[in-house]
Write a structure and sequence with these properties.
The chain has one domain. The model has no long low-confidence stretch (mean pLDDT 76). By secondary structure, it is mainly alpha-helical. The chain is extended. The termini are far apart. The chain is 66% helix and 0% strand.
Amino acid sequence: MKKYVPWLIMLLTILSISSVYAYEPGFAYENPCSDDGVMRVLYIASIVILIIKIAVPFLLVITGILDLIKVVTGNPENLSKQLISFAKRAIAGVLIFIAPSVIFGIFRILDEAIEYEDIENKYSACISCLEDNSQCQFEKYGE
């Protein structure tokens, strides 16, 4: 019976969640990408994405090189395992570097499809802000 207690607590927590209707005066509900607060969050998110795109592949390659140095200077019997590990890390680094570009490409394709269908696209400013943080249009503090 004790092993079911965490599942029961999780189920009761999920069932007790209710809707919250928050209203902020001055927030543009019809176009969230025109709000300064949303654009600030997207600006920070674009910086985080840029850091991840640069740092993670770099760290994966560095740790892979360090592992290969350990194998070469130490026990050569583990060379095949370390080479496989290095290849996996290199592939993961490339995928992490390419993934945001692929996702933004899909967003751009959807953006063009929405414009083709004569539907107003409200999120193109959000997408361009996430892709390039210089495209984020918001009033900066102190300006």
